[in-house]
Amino acid sequence: MKYVLVTGGVISGIGKGIISSSIGTVLKCSGLEVTSIKIDPYLNIDAGTFNPYEHGEVYVLDDGAEVDLDLGNYERFLDVTLTKDNNITTGKIYQNVISKERRGDYLGKTVQVVPHVTDAIIDWVERVSKQAVSPDQRAPDVCVIELGGTIGDIEGMQFVEAFRQLQFRSGSENFCLVHVSLVVETNGGEHKTKPTQQVFSQNIRELRGCGLAPDFIACRSRSPISETVRNKIEKFCYVKNSKVINVYDVSNLYRVPILLRPMIALISEQLKLPVPEQPTKMLRKWYELADLYDKNMDPIRICLVGKYTKLSDAYASVNKALHHAALHCNRKLTIDMVESEDLEEEIMHVDPTRYHSAWHKLCSASGVIIPGGFGHRGTEGKMAAAKWCREKKIPMLGVCFGFQLAVIEYARHVCGIKDAKSGEMENIESENVVIIDMPEHNQGQLGGTMLLGSRRFDFQGGQSVLKQLYGNKEFAYERHRHRYEVNPEFTKQLEDAGMRFVAVDGHRMKAFDLTGKDGHPYYVGVQFHPEYTTRPLRPSPPYMGLILAASGQLDSYLKFPIEKRKRWRSTSEQYNKSTKIVSSDEEDNEKAD
């Protein structure tokens, strides 16, 4: 097994996740099988109870694991399906070691960080790196490992020691270290290398003290650095000039793997990997995708009504799903983030400017997305947005909590259940609890007590737009993350009033679709999280439907034969002149035709 370890210095959040994903992408584009591991040094077992404002969204894997959002980048960039074991935390490692100690596996020995904790880390990495993650279940050739935090953090030192041992065990031809640092740029455009020199000197001393030294330095900057700056970094950081890689800001993330192509040639040389000199077909698709993203396309504006809008990473997968669908529909996407509380009438009296600004954004949008969330705060604002979209016939997609609140809004204003509520709304007294907590929900414990992971749902009630978007399949699989569901006792009353539940899992309602009812262009709610399975070349069906409806292309898309729908392209003249992107399975289909 070949290992590529990515570490960081100076500050956290510097882009290690995107760089790790991009390294893996270019290696995969070269014909290698790649897997990824993300290491988070915190003591939490998983990311399930994290505040979105502190860590961004909680990403859910097929097996139900709640993990860091970087694993979402890995899955989207590499088009793989990871498991809970691809995310290592200090909490998981300590839990594993302590469980062994309690069982007596250490035969009465004193359990210590070295060797027991470090051995547990190495064993975990070696085991997971061999697990197949691609659809064809081929064994990985390379494992890209991202060590979270920054070098020097006390909680990460046990991992640094573990990788020193792994490097010695694997050999220099099987282990490569990429260290990411920041090159500060002044307002005048001058690059200041002092922070990199000073911190790197400290980081490298610490790394060398542990028996590790970076093979590459990836320098993050706003603009390309000069050769003079590169020479300074080489001199002070003990890395050859050719291995000082500048990862500057680019127009879109799809250009980062292209930017790292020269680095991959050097990595493959060190690790003795068979990487072709000329770009492969798969890599050329990344070039085409990046070019398409930068083209002048017809604009489209989507309003995201959420509870954590001050941090865009809180809705990272939602944003990616919208962008993937917009690219496929040849639209330049703008997302207006609206805090749901700002849509509530109480705000009009407290801060009229905020209130009217929020409503202006909502009313100006071509479509609306109401994503998931937890707690009572902002629920009335989300329901106000759902009501506006339903009555004014604005394309809307409600996801998870957004689905539930759209059902409550319908119960209140169409069914006449004025006090309809969710069990999550503790400040409302009512017997009409339309959304109830699930048997999986443990009221006394938050972590891991939801319905999590990929589950099957079945379409019902004949034809629907949502079913057509899924290719007229009788069932599908999507990932879930929720504690509450539609109360079965109210299902008939809702359906008698016109609510159409089109997807179920037993007695559980999984989706409604009111598209076409009273001439509505698109009004869909889903209990699951389709954004977790979106891919750049395979947009999520519900998100695709939203963008299609918002851009007036839904009817033409649905009329296109399902078996050839992958080759559907926007009918706009501008799009026909742009680069055509096709996936490998499309090429195979075209050859067969």
Q: Layout of helices and strands, plus pairs?
A:
Elements: E1 2-8, H1 16-29, E2 34-40, H2 52-55, E3 59-60, E4 66-67, H3 70-78, E5 87-89, H4 90-103, H5 113-129, E6 142-147, H6 157-170, E7 175-182, E8 184-185, E9 191-192, H7 194-209, E10 216-221, H8 227-237, E11 244-248, H9 256-259, H10 261-271, H11 281-294, E12 298-306, H12 316-328, E13 331-339, H13 345-350, H14 352-364, E14 367-370, H15 379-392, E15 396-399, H16 401-413, E16 421-422, E17 433-437, E18 451-459, H17 465-469, E19 475-482, E20 484-486, H18 491-496, E21 501-505, E22 508-513, E23 523-526, H19 541-550, H20 554-559, H21 573-576, H22 584-592
Parallel strand pairs: 1-6, 1-7, 2-5, 2-6, 7-10, 10-11, 12-13, 12-14, 14-15, 15-23, 16-17
Antiparallel strand pairs: 3-4, 8-9, 17-20, 18-19, 18-21, 21-22, 22-23
Helix pairs in contact: 1-3, 4-5, 5-6, 7-8, 12-19, 15-16
- The percent range for helix content is 25-40%
- How many β-strand runs? 23
Write down the overall geometry: globular
| End-to-end gap | 40 Å
Q: What average pLDDT do the residues reach? A: 88
Rg over alpha carbons: 25 Å
Approximately how much beta-strand content do the residues carry? 15-25%
Describe the structure.
There is one protein chain. With 593 residues, the protein is α/β, with parallel strands linked by helices. 38% of the residues lie in helices and 20% in strands. The protein contains 22 helices and 23 strands. The strands form five sheets. The protein has a nine-stranded mixed β-sheet with strand order 13-12-14-15-23-22-21-18-19, sandwiched between helices. A hairpin with a 5-residue loop joins β8 (184-185) and β9. Mean pLDDT is 88; it is low at 572-593.
